[in-house]
Design a protein that fits this description.
- By secondary structure, the protein is mostly helical.
- The chain is 76% helix and 0% strand.
- It contains 9 helices and no strands.
- Helix 2 packs antiparallel against helix 3.
- The protein starts with a helix and ends with a helix.
Length: 249
């Protein structure tokens, strides 16, 4: 039995080294997810709030996932250093659960991407029609129009049928140059259109979201599949340690 114990020690040492390296990388990915979640909240928040009310929770999900991964990354390092089979099995179970959750979320986002576009068109059109420059959705519309240099849903004429237009004209957030815009010009049906951006926001926002959500999805899928490696390493190390303990008895 002694020679067999000697043979398993190098394998256990190698697996421990690999799993510690992986756990450190896993911990770093937690930081990345946390940063992406914060970035998503700051940069995509106004756009997401115009898609659906519940979609604004997406950045918080990434932030929560990132924090959880950071904690379990540290747990994985501790489990590996201690060589505890039950801790390693728990670590492997957590990795498998996170992998499945991220895979389901990624597939769901891909499958329902066309519904997201339809929801955005409906919600953005509704936000324009009920714009009042004061509430959260109105501020989101202003942010979109200023950031992307656009006006209305398909063009500035979207504002003509809105509740805001009869009294105030086209919103100032549509202006090409804010200093060159005044309320009287924006209420004038002839002068107003010459002072604002001609391109609508719908296509620009969809392009912006698809580009940035593609980055987020790529990071999420990369992390998800890397967790398979960690899960296999944790399971193998747990089995070798358990087997080695039995051989020593």
């Amino acid at each position: 039995m002694a020679p067999r114990r000697m043979d398993t020690k190098p394998v256990i040492t190698c697996l421990k080294t690999l799993l510690i390296v992986y756990s450190i990388v896993f911990w770093i990915t937690g930081l990345i997810l946390l940063a992406v979640g914060v970035w998503g909240k700051l940069m995509l928040g106004p756009y997401l709030s115009l898609i659906a009310e519940n979609s604004t929770n997406a950045p918080y999900v990434l932030i929560g996932t990132g924090i959880t991964i950071i904690i379990f990354g540290l747990f994985g390092c501790s489990a590996t250093c201690r060589g505890s089979p039950w801790m390693l099995k728990l670590y492997a179970m957590f990795l498998s659960l996170v992998f499945l959750a991220e895979l389901i979320a990624g597939i769901s986002g891909f499958v329902f991407r066309h519904e997201i576009k339809g929801d955005f068109l409906r919600m953005y059109s509704d936000a324009v029609q009920h714009y009042n420059s004061q509430d959260e959705r109105s501020r989101a519309v202003d942010h979109v129009q200023r950031s992307l240099k656009c006006c209305g849903v398909f063009n500035y004429t979207s504002w003509i049928s809105s509740a805001y237009y009869p009294a105030s004209g086209i919103p100032a957030s549509c202006c090409i140059t804010l200093a060159d815009c005044n309320p009287l010009d924006l209420r004038n049906a002839t002068i107003g259109p010459t002072k604002v951006h001609q391109q609508g926001c719908y296509k620009l926002v969809i392009s912006f979201i698809e580009t940035n959500m593609g980055i987020i999805a790529g990071v999420a899928f990369g992390i998800a599949f890397s967790q398979l490696i960690g899960m296999l390493l944790a399971c193998c190390l747990s089995r070798f340690i358990t087997a080695n303990q039995y051989e020593m008895v």
